[in-house]
């Protein structure tokens, strides 16, 4: 048994348990110490993942990628997602200056839950069995349910049930978000596991590769149970990605959750869901392509239209970015039904580009929230002149999210549209639809730029964000620009991570 292959996951989980125990000791229950330990754990897992990269199975040296009787799969596809999840985890770590506050008694729980969510996503990318898919999915989902209620103004933990203090709007919104996410998430999980049960009943196994082989070799396996199970599984996963019509929870949850958690969820959950969709649909259910392909096309188009249209009418920036993330889920999965290596390649490039520009936008939201106490468009009036760094980097992120050249967002959309064109003329209309939606998004993204530079009073004083936040803003803005000009190393790295996965399908 190759235990080293799950070394990064074990490092993250051990770090989480250490933080939980450290929180019991008063001298260690400090925000700086706990965030520092979390950062060390993430960096250690990153370095361990890089060491595994050279040892992972390849076409030249295939080996056996299966672990624990096929429950987990060790390949560069999963390692690539490990790196993405760990990089995404840096966002809520560095963005935790106010979440939780220093006097909050549950600081250790915050970092423990965050790391357990990351571990769940990492295991999900490795899952080669329906059972491990479900367990991993629930591991990170349950952690996120609780984190969504971790409002900065939730209290110190000392309030009793008979307190006379009125709850703030932020607290109520946070509580609403966690309850709504829990209820809808539990319902989606029930649908998902029921779909898995039906697939097991129809095929006689829960191993993804075996399901694919049985469906290919035995036409009787393509029975009603498998078809229904596939549909129910897709509905459960569509909830995680916020595909329309399973998106209704997203705006309220994103708005009410702490901003660092919102930013993390907006990217990480989509990446995790894509990883498992690629595993399940490309490995276990490729023979049913004619059934799920038109459904996915329709939902992707509808998701883009609803997300972009609804974002136009929002006055809260977090809520606007929530609808924007819904639209980007539509862009991302637009290439999935092409059923080729180019489509997976394009989606992964899009994920990498989306990581920097979206997390950067949420870093701006955190910085402005710390300054003004608000997240509405009114709080951004004249901010481009008062805080030039904020104005410049936010403009970069908005241009990139729109998909205009030269930016990382343009490269991501280019690869998505290119994969559709290479897929054949039956996909050309989707390129047109995607282009129209990009034009629609231009309105609300540039509304942010307009508010920052053309509205409000121009102030003579120039303010700079805190050093840590300024560093993180630059750390996301610079790659957003550079990757729009020179993205070859990232493209080559993704190609290298996918070769073995695609060839073994």
Give a structural overview.
There is one protein chain. The longest helix is centred in the middle third of the chain and has 35 residues, at 169-203. The radius of gyration is 22 Å and the shape is globular. The chain has a two-stranded antiparallel sheet with strand order 1-2. The two termini are 23 Å apart. It is an all-alpha fold and 505 residues long. Helix 15 (388-402) packs antiparallel against helix 17 (428-454). It has 19 helices and two strands. The protein has helices at 7-22, 31-53, 76-94, 107-126, 130-147, 169-203, 208-217, 224-241, 249-256, 259-284, 289-312, 317-333, 341-372, 383-386, 388-402, 408-423, 428-454, 467-485, 488-503; strands spanning 66-67, 72-73.
Any key phrases for this structure?
72% helix; 1% strand; mainly alpha; single chain; 2 strands; 505 residues
How is this structure best summarized?
The protein is mostly helical and 505 residues long.
What order do the helices and strands come in, and which of them pair?
Layout: H1 7-22, H2 31-53, E1 66-67, E2 72-73, H3 76-94, H4 107-126, H5 130-147, H6 169-203, H7 208-217, H8 224-241, H9 249-256, H10 259-284, H11 289-312, H12 317-333, H13 341-372, H14 383-386, H15 388-402, H16 408-423, H17 428-454, H18 467-485, H19 488-503
Antiparallel strand pairs: 1-2
Helix pairs in contact: 1-2, 1-4, 2-3, 2-4, 3-4, 3-10, 3-19, 4-5, 4-10, 5-6, 5-10, 6-8, 6-9, 7-10, 8-10, 9-10, 9-12, 10-12, 10-13, 11-12, 11-17, 12-13, 12-17, 13-15, 13-16, 13-18, 13-19, 15-17, 15-18, 16-18
């Amino acid at each position: 048994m190759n235990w080293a292959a799950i070394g990064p996951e074990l490092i993250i989980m051990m770090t989480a348990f250490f933080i939980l125990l450290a929180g019991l000791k008063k001298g260690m229950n400090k925000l700086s110490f706990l965030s520092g330990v979390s950062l060390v754990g993430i960096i250690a897992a990153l370095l361990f993942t890089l060491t595994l990269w050279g040892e992972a199975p390849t076409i030249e040296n295939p080996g056996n990628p299966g672990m624990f009787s096929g429950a987990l799969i060790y390949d560069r596809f999963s390692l690539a997602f490990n790196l993405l999840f760990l990089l995404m985890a840096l966002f809520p770590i560095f963005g935790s200056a106010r979440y939780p506050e220093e006097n909050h008694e549950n600081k250790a729980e915050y970092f423990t839950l965050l790391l357990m969510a990351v571990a769940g996503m990492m295991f999900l990318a490795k899952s080669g069995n329906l059972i491990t898919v479900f367990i991993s999915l629930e591991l990170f989902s349950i952690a996120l349910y609780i984190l969504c209620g971790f409002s900065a103004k939730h209290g110190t933990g000392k309030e009793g049930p008979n307190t006379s203090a009125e709850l703030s709007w932020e607290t109520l919104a946070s509580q609403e978000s966690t309850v709504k996410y829990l209820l809808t998430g539990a319902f989606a999980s029930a649908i998902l596991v029921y779909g898995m049960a039906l697939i097991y009943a129809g095929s006689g196994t829960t191993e993804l590769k075996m399901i694919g082989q049985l469906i290919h070799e035995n036409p009787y396996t393509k029975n009603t149970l498998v078809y229904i199970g596939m549909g129910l599984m897709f509905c459960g996963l569509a909830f995680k990605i916020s595909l329309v019509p399973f998106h209704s929870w997203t705006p309220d949850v994103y708005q009410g959750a702490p901003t660092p958690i919102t930013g993390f969820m907006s990217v990480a959950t989509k990446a995790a869901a894509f990883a498992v969709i690629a595993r399940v649909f490309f490995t276990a259910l490729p023979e049913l392509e004619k059934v799920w392909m038109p459904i996915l096309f329709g939902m992707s188009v509808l998701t883009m239209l609803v997300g972009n249209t609804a974002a136009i009418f929002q006055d809260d920036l977090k809520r606007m970015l929530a609808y924007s993330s819904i639209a980007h889920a539509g862009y991302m999965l637009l290439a999935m039904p092409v059923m080729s290596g180019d489509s997976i390649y394009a989606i992964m490039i899009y994920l990498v580009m989306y990581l920097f520009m979206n997390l950067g936008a949420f870093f701006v939201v955190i910085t402005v929230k710390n300054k003004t106490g608000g997240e509405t468009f009114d709080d951004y009036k004249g901010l481009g002149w008062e805080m030039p760094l904020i104005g410049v980097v936010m403009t970069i992120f908005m241009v990139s999210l729109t998909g205009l050249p030269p930016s990382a967002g343009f490269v991501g959309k280019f690869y998505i549209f290119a994969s559709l064109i290479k897929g054949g003329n039956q996909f050309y209309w989707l390129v047109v639809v995607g282009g129209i939606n990009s034009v629609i998004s231009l309105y609300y993204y540039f509304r942010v730029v307009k508010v920052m530079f053309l509205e409000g009073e121009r102030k003579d004083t120039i303010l700079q964000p805190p050093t840590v936040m300024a560093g993180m803003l630059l750390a996301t803005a610079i790659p957003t620009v550079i990757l729009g000009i020179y993205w070859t190393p990232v493209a080559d790295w993704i190609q290298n991570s996918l070769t073995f996965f695609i060839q073994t399908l």
